[in-house]
Every structure is written in structure tokens, then in C-alpha cells.
Amino acid sequence: MATKEVKPADPMIDPATGEFRVIGQGQTFRSITEKIARIVLTPHTPMGWFGLFTVAGGVAVVLLTAVTWLFLVGVGIWGITQPVAWGFAIINFVWWIGIGHAGTLISAILLLFKQGWRNAISRFAEAMTIFAVVCAGLFPLIHVGRPWLGYWLFPLPFTMTVWPQFRSPLVWDVFAVSTYATISVVFWYIGMVPDLATLRDRSQSKIGQYFYGMLSVGWRGSTRHWMRYETASLLLAGLATPLVLSVHTVISFDFAVAVLPGWHTTIFPPYFVAGAIYSGFAMVLTLAIPLRKFYHLEALVTERHIDNMGKVMLATGFIVAYGYGMEAFMAWYSASHWEAFMFWNRVFGPMGWSYWVLVTCNLAIPLTTLWSRKLRTSIPFMFFISIVVNTGMWFERFVIVVTSLYRDFLPSSWGTYRATKWDYMTFVGTLGFFTFLFLLFVRFLPMIPMNEIRMLLPGAKIKPKVAEAAD
Amino acid sequence: MPAREGTYGLLAEFDTPSDLVRAAQQARQDGWRRMDCYTPYPVEEAAEAIGFHRNKVPLVTLIGGLMGCAAMFSLETWISTLAYPLNIAGRPLYSWPAFIIPAYEWTILWAGLSAAFGMLALNGLPALYHPLFNAPNFRDGATTDKFFLCLEALDPKFDLVEAKAYLQQFKPNSVVEVEY
């Protein structure tokens, strides 16, 4: 059925399955190693990289400025006030953490499901996770008001003998996010060790050999090592899967455990997790599309990847749509005056425009177009969709945080929310910081896992022993 | 480890994983035990061929996970009931359902760290020096596109001349003697 839409002569289509190939034809162990290692080991950094690096670094300086001023003056420079005491910081925190989740999904859950196509995109999706978590973790830290006391969040024995209060979802969050960050870094690094060994062996420069030699801890590809390595990877994937689901669940508890209309719902955990994956895949596309073009990796990150990511977005988009629908339904079905008013106010109130941005970006545009295979494999369109969904998911968090808070039970305490320039600078600054870190990653570390790609090549098949005449 | 001298082993280079697996299977059948394969990606058949079936990584991970769970749950219980009891909306001090979440996270944290670092430790890594890196063709191939079988000198069957002739029958690209 699917084959009818496309020209059968297309070399990127496997005639046996009618699907797009996971890897372009004619690649060998050496050619893919060269292709990927060259990006890192070349002495000639492309000018475009320097250009982007300068821009991203400049935007990261905006973050530095905003945070420095924040530390000098205090959180009063932000738009947060009563009744909206949670503003951009929490919105950005949830948005960034959500983006990170697709990386873990690709590297862990799709590994468990033996989805071979994920191999090419798993490494930079994991890197995206780590840098997104770095950006996310920044926000609660700077939001506490006195970040130098941030260590109070952890159960540490200090002289005041004050300890955390373990019935609070905010304390659960500390453990969920710190575990997530640690496990993501470990999973990423362990996955990279054999590739770092390849770089050590291919590097021509003394510095490169030393640097990659230290990082690759003396990996030599012994079969015994590989088998333990495979077991450990599988176990880490098996551990990261419940972890990633728990992290966004715990984040949704920050809201759902409160008794506020608009927050106090049981649909939040699955709806948050699906939304996280939705926005995360959008971010993977936002990064993958320019990268494959810039570094000519079309044979490794193929239309198959773009197509499959479109399908995942379609599925998770519908789970998110169900979440929105359920919120509306419960507003009516609960017969609670407060719930009904909250929903009416969210959709038609003075900040109702944000709800309609969300509906347009998360539902109207992607869920009507991603059905078409033609559009799913159109690279410019998918880039556009990825930006649209990222915007939509940011507004989803804006809607949840702000429109639930600004008109609560008592009309005399109603207010509004207006972000200040420092809010915008902090948010835009993290986008720059994220890009900055990501550019360093693509320049100095192997962004596509060479050892996993080798397993997908036809040469990796073990041919049965040639039948010999019995003697 | 005291510095060793002499021959570490003989290293045969193959172009395809199938050749390697066939050679390794035959060598094991012929009674070789101290040997290893070196490949640029995991080849399960090679592990089968040299008789390496089970490893201890899952056990290490399980122990780590259980320790993490026990450590966090006890810490929470101690803090909430003895070290710093707080009345939060009249809830019991020992609110075990709320304690599950951090304990769950620490189970995963400790299990994951045990899996990763346990794997490295069981592999004897980090080990920045290894005699195989002395072989001229090893570093160009083992992490890129060549497949190696190494018969180690510690094997009682090992005799430099005979082992070399033995490896030649598998028609490798080359057989190299590896020095310590």
C-alpha cells in the first residue's frame, strides 16, 4: 500500500519491504567509520560551525547576564508575583526536561524493542537529553531565591540538623531529576566508549590520541568485554525506561498533588509523559535535519528516521489530545464550580489566547498533516512541524502553570502575569547555551554510534559454515 | 602486575566476522582455551565460539539496586521519624507510600551505576596499556573493520611455531606475534 505513493526507482527504498532504507546502499565498515570519524578528527573545522558557535555563545552570554543580575538583585526581577508565583522558571524547567525525554526514549525504549533504525540517531538524541537536563536543572536552582543554599535540597548532615521533608513532591523531584541526569550521562558515556577507542586509533594528532585514549579507558574490543558491555547496555536501557517514565510523572506530581483546579487531576502523569515525548521528538528533528544536511549524513540519517519520528509524534500527539479532551470533560463531569470556571477562564479568559496557540500548534497543524507519508518525508515540512510542536509544547506548560494560577478561588485576589525582559533573556539564553553545548558535542565527540551502525551493515551477517564433505 | 617479557600471543587478522567465528570455533574444538576475539562491534557468535556464555553484570546490578533501595528507604524513615520529625497536615511520621518514590529513584540510580562501573571493573578497565596495542595492524583494524583471533601464550598448548602454522590454516590476512 505504502509503496504506491513513491517511485519504485528511488534508491533509498528497499524493494523487499517497500520501506525506506535505514542506511544508504554501498556502505562498508570502513566507509561509515571514515564518514563519522572525519567530522571529529578533521583539522579543518567548517566555517559554518564557527559562525553558529559564535552566535550560540553570544546568546549564552545573555543567559549569563540574566543570571548574574538575578543573583545580585533577587527573583523580584522576574514577572512572578501573587497569585502567579510560578512563572517562566517552572514552564522552562518542564519544557526542557520534556525535551530530554525523547533522547532516553530513543536510546533506551527503542533499544529494548530492538528497533534497529534508532541506532543512527541515538547518540545525539542522548546528548540532547543531557544538555536539555542541564538547562532544565538550572531553573529550579535559580528559582529558589538563594541558590547558594541549593544543597539544602539534599539529605546532608549539616550543623543545623535540618532534613528534607519526604512527603513533598518537590523533594521527590530532586531525586528524580538528579537520578535522571546521572543515569543519562553514564548511559551516554558508556555507549560512547568503543567509539572513542575508534577515534583514539584513527586520530593523527598527539593531543587527539591522548584525549580519546584517556576517555576510551583502553577499550580494545575483546569479545568478553563486548558481551559484558552488551549486558550492561541492555540493563541500563531497562533501568532508564522506568526512570524516564517516573521523572515526568514526578514532575506532574508537583502540580497534581496541589489542590488547585487545573492542576489537581489524575490524568497528569501519562499526559505529561506523552507530551514530553512529543516535544522531545520534535527537538530531535529540529537538530537532526540541519545536522544531516550540514555534515552530509543523508546515508545514515535517512528518510526512514524522519518518517518514523513523524509517526511517533503523531501517536504521542493524540495521547496529548486525549489529555486536553479529558481536562475539558472533567471540568464538566466533575460538576465542580471551580473546575468549570477554571476551564472556561483558561479557554476564553483574558489569557485564553495562549490556549488557542497551544491548540493550533499541538493539535490543529501536526495532527492533521502527519498522516501523509508525503509530508512526513518532506524535509522542509518536518522541520517546520518540529518548530511548531516545540512552540506548542512550551505554550502547553504556560497554560498549565499560568492560567491555573492567575484567577483562583477568591476574585479579590485575581491578578495577571506578565513576564519581564529578564524572564525572556533567561529563556532565550538557555536556548543559546543548549546550542553551544550541542555544537561542542558534534565537534569533539562521535555524534553517530559507529559500533551500532556497523551491526546494521550487510557485512555483519555471519554466514553459516560452508558445508564440508564429512570425512 | 609485574612486568612480563616474551610473547603475549599470536594474533590472526580476518576480513569478515564469519571467518573469525569459524576459526574460533575450530580452535576451541581443538582444545584451545586461552584465546580471545577482537571485533569492532559486538559479535555474539564469537563469544559462543570461545565458550563465553554468562557474565556477572546482572548480579552486580541487582545487588546495587537493592542496596540503593534499602539505603534510601532507611534514610527517609530515620529522618522522618527520628532525626527531624515534622507534623505535615497530621499525616503519620512514617508515611511509607510517599517514601517509595525517592527509594525507587535510588534503586535505579545505584543499579545503573553498578551496571556501568561494574561492567568496566569486570572488564579490567581502565587499562590504558595492553600488549595487543603493540601489534602493528591491531590499532588500524580492531576498532574499524578487521576481526582478530588471539591465541595467548599462557595456553598450555601454545608453541610459537606450531601455533603459527595452526593459525595459517584458517587463511587469515596475517599472523603476528605480539610481544609484552
Question: Topology, pairings included?
Answer:
The complex is a heterodimer of chains A (471) and B (180).
Chain A: H1 29-41, H2 47-73, H3 88-112, H4 119-143, H5 169-202, H6 206-215, H7 223-256, H8 268-294, H9 303-333, H10 337-348, H11 352-364, H12 366-369, H13 373-376, H14 379-405, H15 421-444, H16 450-454
Helix pairs in contact in A: 2-15, 3-4, 3-7, 3-8, 3-14, 4-5, 4-15, 5-6, 5-7, 7-8, 8-9, 8-14, 9-10, 10-11, 11-14
Chain B: E1 7-14, H1 17-29, E2 35-38, H2 44-49, H3 57-83, H4 96-122, H5 138-141, E3 147-152, H6 160-168, E4 174-179
Antiparallel strand pairs in B: 1-3, 1-4, 2-3
- Shape annotation of chain A: globular
Please, what is the average pLDDT of chain A?
85
Question: Main sheet of chain A?
Answer: none
**Radius of gyration computed on alpha carbons of chain B:** 25 Å
Give the oligomeric state: heterodimer
Which key terms come to mind for this protein?
A: 471 residues; mainly alpha; 67% helix; B: 180 residues; 2 domains; four-stranded antiparallel β-sheet; 6 helices; 4 strands
